[in-house]
Structure formats: C-alpha cells, structure tokens
C-alpha cells in the first residue's frame, strides 16, 4: 500500500492537479510573519539590554547591592525568555512543526522571574501586602514551577 496519497493517485493513472494552490501564499505569509516577530523580539532584547545598562549606571550609587543583583538577574531572565522564543521560532520555521518543550521552559523562566520580583518587592516594603498574601502567591508560583517541571520531565520520558 503506498504511503503518499499522491503516489496512490499516480499509480492509477490519475495525475495530480497542477494549478493555483493556497499553500505557496500561506507559506510566504507565514515566513513574513516570522521575520516580523523575530525583528520585534530582537528589538525587545536590545531595548532590555540598553535599559538595563542605563538603569545600572544611573542607580548604582544610591541603590542597594542586593537590589541591583535582583534587578540584573530579573533582566537576565527576561533576555533568556526572549532567546528561548527566538529559538522556538527557528525550530518552528525550519522544522515546520510546533514543539511544546521550549514554551514550557519559557514558562519556567517566567515563574522564576516572578518569584524574584515578588520576593524583592516584599523585602523592600514596596509590596505593602500582608505576609499571608506573599506566602500564598509564592506557594502558587512554587506549585506552578513544580507542574511545569513535571511536564518537561514527562515529555523527556515519553520521548525515550
């Protein structure tokens, strides 16, 4: 039994129709959209880098060292998210398939980033929330991180 339906038709003397199909314009539009998205992600990464450098230079004299460290770590995680999105676009564009694992990794990075922000806000007093609210949000984020890690582990396990 032939694997390709086009081969099955040609085996019976039926020739595939040669005419206008929607596939070519759709592929072209999809590639153009990927180029626009890639450009916007690169612009976002450059803006994040420039803003990080400017903020570090402006506030390094009157900001606490721990606060600066959390700020740099948060921005680094944001850049990791952008880099992972770019890698996902490359996989989708070249492989013509959607891969779930990079999105799970982006979500894990986002959760870690949010944990850092929530913790820094609470410690600096900007959170102005109660301890119970802080612990509830931190617990929810920990549960989300655990669920995402479990999903990645299950994906690896089912692949092998």
How does this structure look, described?
It is a single chain. With 160 residues, the chain is mainly alpha-helical. It has one domain. Helices cover 80% and strands 0% of the residues. The protein contains five helices and no strands. It has helices spanning 5-11, 23-59, 65-95, 101-124, 131-159.
Report the principal-axis shape: flat
- Profile the largest sheet: none
Low-confidence segments, ≥5 residues, pLDDT <50? none
Task: Give the fraction of residues assigned to helices.
Answer: over 70%
Number of domains: 1
List keywords for this structure.
0% strand, flat, single chain, 160 residues, mainly alpha
Write the layout of secondary structure elements.
Elements: H1 5-11, H2 23-59, H3 65-95, H4 101-124, H5 131-159
Helix pairs in contact: 2-3, 3-4, 4-5
Summarize the model shown:
This protein is mainly α. The protein has one domain. Helices cover 80% and strands 0% of the residues.
């Amino acid at each position: 039994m032939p694997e390709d339906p086009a081969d099955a038709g040609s085996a019976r003397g039926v020739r595939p129709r040669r005419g206008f199909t929607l596939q070519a314009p759709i592929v072209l539009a999809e590639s153009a959209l990927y180029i626009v998205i890639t450009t916007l992600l690169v612009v976002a990464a450059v803006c994040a880098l420039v803003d990080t450098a400017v903020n570090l230079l402006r506030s390094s004299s009157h900001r606490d060292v721990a606060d600066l460290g959390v700020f740099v770590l948060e921005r680094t995680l944001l850049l990791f998210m952008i880099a992972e999105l770019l890698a996902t676009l490359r996989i989708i564009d070249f492989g013509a398939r959607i891969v779930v694992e990079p999105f799970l990794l982006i979500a894990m990075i986002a959760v870690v980033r949010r944990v850092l922000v929530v913790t820094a806000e609470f410690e600096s007093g900007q959170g102005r929330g109660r301890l119970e609210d802080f612990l509830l949000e931190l617990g929810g984020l920990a549960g989300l991180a655990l669920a995402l890690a479990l999903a990645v582990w299950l994906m690896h396990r089912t692949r092998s």
